[in-house]
Amino acid sequence: MNSKEQHVGLNDGHAIPQLGFGTYVPKEIPRSNVIEAIKIAIDAGFRHIDTAYFYEVEEEVGQAIRSKIEEGTVKREDIFLTSKLWSTFNRPEVVRPCLERSLKKLQLDYVDLYLIHFPTSLKPGEDVFPKDEHGKFIFDTVDLCDTWEAMEKCKDAGLAKSIGVSNFNRRQLEMILNMPGLKHRPVCNQVECHPYLNQSKLLEFCKARDIVMVAYAALGSNTDKEWVNKNNPVLLEDPVLNSIAQKHRRTPAQVALRYQLQRGLLVLAKSFNEKRMQENFQVFDFQLTPEDMQTLDGLNRNIRYFEDSEFSPHPNYPFSDEE
Question: Residue 184, Cα to own-chain centre: how many angstroms?
Fold first, then answer.
């Protein structure tokens, strides 16, 4: 990952690898598998690792990274590590404690990028999903500008080199950008993005404001996950995507990833299969034609795999807006 083409400059002067490795795994996956997968990902060439407090794998992520540093495969500065502030920590006074918890689990001095994971706030406490007696989420009311100010302090303290947001819509981004006394602009917005949900308007908005867009679920999602909409089609089985893949002698996943890179997005790829990990990294040595890109643009159906509908009663639920 040394070539300049594979890095993108951020608005605060740092640079981030275009392709990242996602680390969210279901709880039934043994934690030892997580450590091994991240080691394999680093060996395959991944230098951008994306995790979060909510994923509950930060200890394993840190262990894998430290192991690769100790054996001399990489140095700490070679790895770009992202983590995220969970919704139960959106109150400004607990933003830094959440990051410090993550750093303690990772056993690292800093993260390269720290994101507000979701704009909807939940009741503070140890429960990741605080619920009432009816099984409904217990929400909290927090001004996201106050949360952002606390994020800025984490950057100033050197605990996070860069700061950004995740799952924010245009209106919420504008609120941060227009806040009085803004010191550091968000460097990125990490959102669900794939050919069925190409987020073209939000992408245009972010580009105009020098905010990098990072695509998660870039390969769609397995519909067997409990929170994923079961009625959605499987992206990687799409006949149009497959025909373009055959033309280029590539996998549908490689074409889906390449599509995002050529649109100027960063993209996260997640697989715990070694062969697929290596394939996912082999997306820098071919180009989709303008016609391919136009065809893939035409697949957009505004299909969202991750609706997070349990959050929808919250006034900051981001997916009610068109962009």
Answer: 20
